Amino acid sequence: MTALFLKISRILDRAAVIACGSAALVLVVMVLVNVVLRYGFGTGSIKMQDLAAYAFAVLVITSVPVCLARGGHVRVEVLSERLSPGYLRGADAVALVLFLIPLFGLVIWAGWNDLTYSWSIREGAVTPGGLGGLWLVKSVLPLASVMMIWQGVAVVLNPPTPVADAPEVGPPETFVPVPERPDDRDALHRDGAAS
């Protein structure tokens, strides 16, 4: 059962990565085309602006489960670097039950009536002459919320491992002391000017 759950989790993750990549590509192309049209030819397209906005919404919403699946979510590093992996897994399980599931369950519940109404009228563009299909974009939020809950459970069952080739993130190699007293600042400037 766990293996099937994790397999579905990987499929959902791949779908979210494809959605993020596609949305990012559409966003970049639409913004570039809009800039060229507006400043190069003195014209523009409201539909292309709407498509860029839709792509941005999809990118932001679908990137959240992708981040969670890769362990990119926020943790208090002071605590997490000192705790054992077993304890962190337990903390993730508690956070899943107390925060992630209720929060994203609330997102689904609170937006459900708006989503069903949007689907019933096939909600279109907010601006005149804009791109239709806003109801499809609104559908991404509950889908991403379900994916977040699913990925949260998957992270507890099988925590992500760090990428082997990923660069270490740490303090910078150089440190410039900040003088504490005003007269120290003058000395620092004199020393810096002399060298």
Automatic annotation (TrEMBL):
Residues 180-195 have a biased composition (Basic and acidic residues). One of its GO terms (molecular function) is transmembrane transporter activity. It holds the Pfam family DctQ. Its main location: membrane. The complex comprises the extracytoplasmic solute receptor protein and the two transmembrane proteins. Part of the tripartite ATP-independent periplasmic (TRAP) transport system. Belongs to the TRAP transporter small permease family. This is TRAP transporter small permease protein. The lineage of its organism: Bacteria, Pseudomonadati, Pseudomonadota, Alphaproteobacteria, Rhodobacterales.
